[in-house]
Amino acid sequence: MTETEDIANSTYDVVVLGAGPVGENVADRTRAAGLTTAVVESELIGGECSYWACIPSKALLRPAIAQAEARRLPGLSASVQGPLDAAAVLARRDYWASDWKDDGQVGWLESIGAEIHRGHGRLSGERTVTVTAPDGTRKVLTARHAVAVCTGTRAVLPDLPGLEEVRPWTSREATSAKAAPGRLVVVGGGVVATEMATAWQALGSRVTLLVRGKGLLNRMEPFAGELVAEALTEAGVDVRTGTSVESVTRENGTVVVVTGTGDRIEADEILFATGRAPHTDDIGLDTVGRKPGSWLEVDDSLRVTGSDWLYAVGDVNHRALLTHQGKYQARIAGAAIAARASGAPVQSDPWSAHGATADHDAVPQVVFTDPEAAAVGLSLAEAEQAGHRVRAVDYDLGSVSGAGLYGDGYRGRARMVVDLEREILLGVTFVGPGVGELIHSATIAVAGQVPISRLWHAVPAFPTISEVWLRLLEAYRDN
C-alpha cells in the first residue's frame, strides 16, 4: 500500500468533522438516537475550548479573581497582599488542560460508541469526507444522512509587515504559556484581550492594553467596558484606547511596538486578540459548491442553506462564537439529524426541539475579568435598532445588601431591557464581582419570556447579590 492509496470506504449514518465540544455533542446526540457516527479530528480530541481557550483561561483567571475578592474583606485582606504563586497557578492550569493529552476525551467518545478517525478531514463530494492520517494513508468516509462541520475558528492576525518574524501570541499561546513575561502588550478590546490582561497582570506581567476603539467589550452595554477598564487600570494595566498598532518588530529578543500616535512600547511578548475566522479554509468546501474559508450560513436546525445533508454547528456558522452556545446548537442539530433520518417531522416553531431560537434571543455570556461582566439577550442599543419599544432599568449593584457583604467597596451595575408592549425582558446585563453566577436566572427570564408580573413572585434570597432582581423590578414599577 502506498502512502496515498485509499483504504476501504467506510459508511456511517453521520460523519462529524471536528471533535471539540460541539462535535462531541453532535456525536452524543446522534449516537443516542441510534445512528452510527464517525468523528474526525486532526488535533486533540476536546478541541480549542479544552486546551487553549475556556478551560485553561479560566484556570488562570480564578486565582487572580479570588485574590482580588479576598483583598476586599477585612480580616483576610492582610493575608493575601503578596503576589500570586505563578508556578502553582500554571501547574493547576496544566492539570485542567489535561497536560494537553486527550486520553480522557477519547475514552468518553469511545464510551458512547462513536468511532474516532485521526487525521485531516476534507469534504470530497456530497456526503463524503476523506481523512488523511498522520502517516499519509487515506480513508474515505461516506455519510448516509449527514455530515456536520464542527471545525470552529482560528485567531486572526493583522496584516502587518514582518509580523511572522515577531512570533506573536494568539489566544493559544496566551493560555498555554509556561511563564509570565516581564512585559506583555495585548492588542484588542474584547473578551480574550481583557481576560488575558487580567490574568497575566495578576501573574506578574506588566501589561499594556492597546484598544483601537473607544472602549472595551463593545458588544455589551457601554458601562460594562467602562467598569472593566477602570478596574484594569487600578490593577496596574496601562489601558490605551483609540490606539492603533502601526508596526511591530522584534529586536534582540525585545518586541518593539509603534502606535498610530508615534509612541514606542517595548515588551517581551505581544498578544493579538483581534478577532476570529472560520476554520473552513482547507476542509474541501469547494467540492460541494461552497467558498473555502467562509462562514457557513444555516437555518435554525443548523443545516447549511441550500443543502439537505450538510450541517454547520458552532463557531463556523457565526451565529454565536461561544462554547456553550455551540453545544446548545449541537443538541439541536443532533435532534434534527435524527428526526430527518427516521422520517419524522422536523419542528420549525420557535423554541421547538429542532430550532436554535436562543441564538437569536437569549445568548448568555460571561467575561471573567475583575469585575465580571455578564449579559444575555439584547442590549438597549440592539433592542432599539430592532424596532422594539423598550425601556432600560438600571440599578447600582453596590447598594444591594448582598453585594456589600460580598466585599467592601463593591462596585457594579445592573440593567434590564424591558419590552414595553409585552412587559417581558429582552436583555439583562450585570457587571460586578461574582455576577457570572447571576446570569442563568436572567437567561431563564429572557428565554422563557417571563412576564414582569410573574417575576415579582420569584423572590430573591436575602442577603444575596440576587436581591438586585427585586431592586430592578421596584425601579421599573416606581418610575
From TrEMBL:
Names of required cofactors: FAD
Annotated residues for binding of NAD(+): G188, G189, G190, V191, V192, A193, T194, E195, G275
Molecular function GO labels: dihydrolipoyl dehydrogenase (NADH) activity; flavin adenine dinucleotide binding
Keyword NAD: yes
FAD/NAD(P)-binding domain ranges (all copies): 12-324
Swiss-Prot/TrEMBL keywords: FAD, Flavoprotein, NAD, Nucleotide-binding
Family named by the database record: Belongs to the class-I pyridine nucleotide-disulfide oxidoreductase family.
PANTHER family noted in UniProt: DIHYDROLIPOYL DEHYDROGENASE, MITOCHONDRIAL (PTHR22912:SF151), DISULFIDE OXIDOREDUCTASE (PTHR22912)
Disulfide bond sites: C49-C54
Organism domain of life: Bacteria
Binding site for FAD: K58, G121, D315
Protein's name in the database: Pyridine nucleotide-disulfide oxidoreductase
Stored InterPro entries: Class-I_Pyr_Nuc-Dis_Oxidored, FAD/NAD-bd_sf, FAD/NAD-binding_dom, FAD/NAD-linked_Rdtase_dimer_sf, Pyr_nuc-diS_OxRdtase, Pyr_nucl-diS_OxRdtase_dimer
UniProt xrefs under SUPFAM superfamilies: FAD/NAD(P)-binding domain (SSF51905), FAD/NAD-linked reductases, dimerisation (C-terminal) domain (SSF55424)
GO biological process terms held by the UniProt record: 2-oxoglutarate metabolic process
Residue ranges annotated for the Pyridine nucleotide-disulphide oxidoreductase dimerisation domain, each copy included: 363-469
Cofactor note: Binds 1 FAD per subunit.
